[in-house]
Amino acid sequence: MSGGLPPAVMVAGLGAARAARAAGSCLLLSVPGAAGSLGPGGWRALMAAAGPGPDALCAEDAPGHALAALAAGCPIVVLAGQVPAFDAVAAVARARGAILLPARPPALDLTRIAWQRPGGAALLARWLTPDDSRPGLG
């Protein structure tokens, strides 16, 4: 665990989100740009169904989507650090008690592995095993 957050696992649906939660402590990370495609309300509903634990919604380089995510109660939002409005959005995040990350954390991408199969489940379990050599969340 780095930066106070557990290892990240990128999910796009409820099955993968529940599997990740069942496998161990993890940060559920949306696919890139999900704040604009799925929307904060859809992400919050997905996370409520997935069960308790930290989650992060990605707004890519769209500060308006990041602000909408914060207004919807997303606890962690990812907004590209080079966006000119990053500091203003970060101030809103702090005021709401949320975290604004300037980049997506390293994550195991469950959209690309067969997490339902033994090999995929084993990969997920290895990813969630504490490892001090894993890259930080910066």
Describe it.
- With 138 residues, the chain is an alpha/beta fold.
- The chain has one domain.
- It has 6 helices and 6 strands.
- The chain has helices spanning 14-23, 34-37, 39-50, 63-71, 86-96, 118-128, and strands at 8-10, 27-29, 55-58, 76-78, 99-101, 107-109.
- The protein has a 6-stranded parallel beta sheet.
- The longest helix has 12 residues, at 39-50.
- The protein is elongated.
- It starts with 7 loop residues before the first strand and ends in a 10-residue tail after the last helix.
- The mean pLDDT is 91.
Helix-strand category: alpha/beta
Q: Categorize the overall geometry.
A: elongated
- Span of the ends, CA to CA: 12 Å
Tally of distinct domains:
1
- What is the CA-atom radius of gyration, in angstroms? 14 Å
Sheet bearing the most strands, described?
6 strands, parallel
Order of helices and strands: EHEHHEHEHEEH
**E-strand count:** 6
Unreliable spans? none
* Residues in helices, as a percent range: 40-55%
> Strand share of the residues?
5-15%
Overall pLDDT: 91
- The helix tally amounts to 6
User: What spatial order of strands do you see in the largest sheet?
Assistant: 5-4-3-2-1-6
Quaternary state of this entry equals single chain
Question: Would you kindly provide a brief summary of this structure?
Answer:
This protein has 138 residues and is of the alpha/beta class. It is built from six helices and six strands, in the order E-H-E-H-H-E-H-E-H-E-E-H.
Please outline the helices and strands.
Layout: E1 8-10, H1 14-23, E2 27-29, H2 34-37, H3 39-50, E3 55-58, H4 63-71, E4 76-78, H5 86-96, E5 99-101, E6 107-109, H6 118-128
